[in-house]
From TrEMBL:
Family to which this protein belongs: Belongs to the histone deacetylase family.
Name of this protein: Histone deacetylase
Span of domain Histone deacetylase: 21-310
GO BP term, example: epigenetic regulation of gene expression
Gene3D superfamilies noted in UniProt: Histone deacetylase domain
Organism encoding this protein: Ruficoccus amylovorans
Pfam families in the record: Hist_deacetyl
Length: 315
């Protein structure tokens, strides 16, 4: 069995998005309740997330934007992205905790305190641009983690694999001209946010370090597995990363109301086994997974459990 860390914090429920919003505190509660009532309770290393520093946020976001988010949250009724991305009084501190969870997980894995890690966090991050909140995201947790891995730990190359059903526009744009961070996405297309065409491959020094694998609605798990074992595995092997980060969205589940894919929790378990095998082969097993989407609570909890069992290498 692997040593798998879980980064979480009870304050993640204090990011309040209002009634009927899909990115709600019940998502987090469903995950934690499911883990606490399973054998995973004792099999995981539980860690409390700590907030990201302003310096860590500024590595990926403009200072004025960070200040704007803080002010909107303190006002208690802030909204971004035409009201789609909502915040409450505590949301700025909770978003710092979310980014800090990803940073802390990177620290733990690179220190050898655990083999791999999963961050059960909210709000999610992969849509957040350098100076724009969108798609329920305030700060780009996985991008902040990648920059921290390079700056604080001196890693040369980081590979980000994003299998959320929505393309991670913010993450792609964070590293589109950066040849040291590879961004690879499997997502429904055309779909929100409208980016992620296969011809988007990076620019300048980053040319060739973006790989988009757009998929039609109702794609099944065997297609995902073939892509992970084929072009994704080839990209990882060619890039030779020091760390694998996963933007783990579970909204491609067949029961998810936000999407139109046909995956099951067993598919997410199989995809995680492949990702873990790639990390084992190419970067000493160093893998950090960060929660993104997933909006049907029962399906989300079941998918996270399958994901964690595969990280632990238990069935």
């Amino acid at each position: 069995m692997a040593r798998t860390a879980l980064f979480q914090h009870p304050d993640f429920v204090h990011h309040e998005t209002g009634p009927d919003h899909p990115e709600c505190l019940e998502r987090y509660r469903a995950i934690i309740d499911a883990l606490e009532n399973s054998s995973l309770q004792s099999e995981l290393q539980w860690h409390l997330a700590e907030p990201a520093t302003l310096e860590q946020l500024e590595a990926n976001h403009d200072r004025d934007y960070i200040r704007h988010v803080e002010e909107a949250c303190l006002a208690g009724t802030g909204q971004f992205d035409k009201g789609e991305t909502r915040v409450s009084h505590e949301s700025f501190q909770v978003a710092r905790l979310a980014a800090g969870a990803a940073v802390g997980a990177v620290d733990a894995v690179l220190a050898g305190a655990c083999d791999n890690a999963f961050c059960a966090l909210r709000p999610p991050g992969h849509h957040a641009e350098r100076a724009k909140a969108m798609g329920f995201c305030l700060f780009n947790n996985v991008a902040i983690a990648a920059r921290h891995a390079r700056k604080a730990h001196g890693l040369d190359r980081v590979f980000i694999l994003d299998w959320d059903i929505h393309h991670g526009n913010g993450t792609q744009h964070s590293f589109y001209d950066d040849g040291q961070v590879f961004f690879c996405s499997l997502h429904q297309y055309p779909f929100y946010p409208g980016t992620g065409n296969a011809d988007e491959q990076g620019i300048g020094a980053g040319k060739g370090t973006t790989l988009n694998l757009p998929l039609p609605p109702r794609t099944k798990g065997d297609t995902y597995q073939n892509l992970l074992a084929g072009p994704v595995a080839d990209a990882v092997a060619g890039f030779r990363p020091d760390l694998l980060l996963v933007s783990a969205g579970f909204d491609a589940h067949r029961d998810d109301p936000m999407a139109h894919m046909d995956l099951t929790e067993e598919d997410f378990g199989a995809m995680t086994r492949t990702a873990r095998a790639l990390a084992d082969e190419h970067c000493g097993g160093r893998l950090v997974s960060v929660l993104e989407g997933g909006y049907e609570h029962k399906a989300l909890a079941a998918s996270v459990k399958a994901h964690l069992r595969s990280l632990l290498a238990v069935e």
